[in-house]
């Protein structure tokens, strides 16, 4: 018994020693009281927290501004796409109307000429009949009715001028395609603004006003009292952009460095002013003169054609009461009037004099737009707000069908002619 107790005690003690040997108490760190000041206090924690919150507010403000800018930009893009859809629809519509009115011109011209020549032929055949009777009466009555129908149709045709209507729609299609390309370019650049949207809307409305689709109530006057160039751009497009005035010397000194940066110089401005003078004295005057000639010709033929068919109708009606003995004398007037009417109608509508008048009107309008564009650009005193001078010069040269070097040569020759007091029309070959 005693032996078992001792053995148990030995086992306990040995196990106890093994447990004590397994436990290791870590050494306490040595505290450096000199670094106690570096421990963050409550005040430092509040200061650091405030700085973090301020940085977060700044970032949040920038994020809000960026989101607002992105939202405005997205809205402008969506609006431009909506305008682009409307412009594409107008391009298709004006193109279809152009084809339709071109068909009007061809069909009406052929129909009226066939009616006129048929009536003239009937009158000539009636003149060869020596005996009175139903055949003679039928021929004279038919020719009188056909001449009357030709007169009415010719009055309508001369009123609406289908060839001029066709040219209007052709120009509208071209200008709407040009606007479509401009909007697509603005969207592709990726930075549209509300001004771009507003400008596109104004251009669409200006084109709608310049080239209306309906005939009744909105058709352009085909025989105006005075030749006036076409206007298809909004009135605010070339308005003066800045109204402030400053001393000339100060302005020159202030803009000296800007001119080098934005592509503008005294030579470029002088060149643009000379181009404006050439456009005023040569192109606009020429197109106005030619437009007035085309307008007068169109007016005369628009009156002469129906007048000739009307005279032929009246003479054919009067010949109904003339016996067969005077057939030749009674048929002379309708024969001559009918032939002249067919010739005048063919020259007016086959030659498309109305289209020529509209072409001159649009050409004069183009040079007016060019003049307004250059003048409004030069009136802008803040050179940074202008379009880049070199780019603007290149655009003007392309619109005038020249290279930049040729445009500069044109300006220099114009200045030389003006300084010598030489009429520009006498030296048109030198300038053009």
UniProtKB/TrEMBL annotation:
Annotated coiled-coil segments of the chain: none
Region (Disordered): 243-265
InterPro entries: Chloroplast_duf (IPR027949)
Organism of this sequence: Crotalaria pallida
Listed Pfam families: Chloroplast_duf
UniProt name for this protein: Petal formation-expressed
Composition skew (Basic and acidic residues), residue ranges: 243-259
Origin: domain of life: Eukaryota
């Amino acid at each position: 018994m005693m032996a078992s107790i001792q053995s148990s005690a030995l086992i306990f003690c040995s196990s106890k020693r093994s447990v004590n040997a397994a436990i290791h108490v870590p050494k306490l760190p040595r505290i450096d009281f000199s670094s106690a000041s570096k421990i963050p206090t409550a005040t430092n924690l509040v200061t650091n927290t405030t700085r973090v919150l301020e940085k977060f507010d700044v970032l949040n403000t920038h994020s809000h501004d960026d989101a607002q800018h992105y939202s405005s930009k997205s809205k402008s893009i969506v609006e431009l796409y909506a305008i682009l859809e409307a412009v594409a629809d107008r391009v298709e519509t004006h193109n279809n109307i152009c084809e339709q009115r071109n068909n009007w011109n061809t069909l009406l011209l052929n129909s009226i000429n066939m009616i006129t020549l048929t009536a003239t032929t009937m009158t000539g055949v009636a003149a060869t009949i020596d005996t009175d009777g139903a055949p003679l009466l039928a021929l004279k009555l038919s020719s009188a009715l056909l001449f009357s129908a030709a007169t009415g149709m010719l009055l309508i045709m001369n009123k609406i001028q289908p060839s001029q209507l066709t040219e209007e729609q052709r120009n509208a299609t071209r200008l709407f395609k040009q606007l479509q390309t401009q909007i697509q370019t603005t969207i592709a650049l990726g930075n549209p603004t509300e001004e771009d949207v507003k400008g596109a809307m104004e251009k669409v409305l200006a084109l709608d006003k310049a080239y209306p689709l309906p005939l009744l109530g909105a058709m352009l006057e085909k025989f105006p009292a005075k030749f006036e160039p076409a206007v298809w751009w909004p009135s605010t497009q070339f308005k003066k952009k800045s109204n402030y005035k400053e001393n000339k010397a100060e302005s020159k000194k202030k803009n000296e460095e800007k001119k080098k940066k934005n592509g503008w110089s005294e030579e470029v401005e002088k060149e643009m002013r000379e181009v404006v003078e050439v456009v005023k004295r040569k192109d606009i005057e020429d197109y106005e003169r030619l437009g007035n000639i085309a307008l007068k010709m169109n007016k005369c033929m628009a009156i002469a054609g129906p007048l000739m068919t009307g005279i032929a109708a009246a003479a054919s009606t009067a010949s109904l009461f003339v016996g067969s003995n005077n057939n030749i004398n009674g048929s002379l007037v309708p024969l001559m009037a009918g032939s002249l009417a067919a010739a005048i109608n063919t020259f007016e509508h086959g030659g498309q004099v109305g289209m020529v008048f509209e072409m001159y009107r649009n050409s004069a309008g183009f040079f007016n737009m060019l003049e307004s564009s250059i003048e409004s650009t030069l009136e802008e005193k803040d050179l940074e707000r202008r379009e880049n001078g070199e780019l603007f010069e290149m655009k003007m040269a392309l619109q005038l069908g020249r290279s930049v070097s040729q445009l500069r040569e044109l300006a220099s020759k114009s200045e030389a002619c003006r300084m010598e007091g030489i009429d520009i029309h006498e030296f048109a070959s030198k300038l053009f």
